[in-house]
Amino acid sequence: RMPTTRSVLIHMWDKSQQYLKKMGGVILIASIIIWFLGYFPIDHEREAHFDDQIVGIEAQHSDGLIDDEKKDEQIVQVEDLRNVAHQESSFIGRIGKTIEPVMRPLGFDWKISVSLLSGMAAKEVVISTLGVLYTGDSEDQESLKVRLQDSTQPDGSPSFTPLVVVSLLLFVLIYFPCVATIVAIKEESGSWKWGLFSIIYTTSLAWIVSFLVYQIGSML
User: Fold this and answer.
1) How far is CA 78 from CA 81, 144, 156, 209, in A?
2) What number of helices (H) and strands (E) belong to the chain?
């Protein structure tokens, strides 16, 4: 029978409600943890250095050495440098820098590496982590899609090329199932052995597949 609109909407709401109850808390907590690791520690000496640069730019503007447009442009550049320096020196930046050498052959920088690490709680957390790490300016209201497209490496090359995106999608598709799945495997098998095997096997397979795709694609 053709389902009625009312029954479809009720079924959709019921399933959505179940998902939000199950995963909403996990995603929220994971996002808060990622934010905390990305915000601290605060280097007051470094912050004062960037503040002094901004004061110097405003002084040049007051003296008539630069116009309004030039002043705004230079301040934006300083703020961008401040954000990059803060992210790299934060707790999460240090974690990302540690695992980056292992993930770099797949085309992933430290931010992508951290998002994959946090995705072990739930695959959905990968996106929320990218949203936290690629915030840019605190007043920047651009969508995550635009921020990812505009993100660049230190050498100026884009962080997300089509090849990197394909490599990332494949890795997320194949690697570590969420913690809940590992617990379920342990409960069903009666041993952590199979849960550990699932972690190692899927993550290794994901690394190999993404490595082959990225490296072969880079040579073509």
Assistant:
1) 5, 22, 17, 39
2) 10, 0
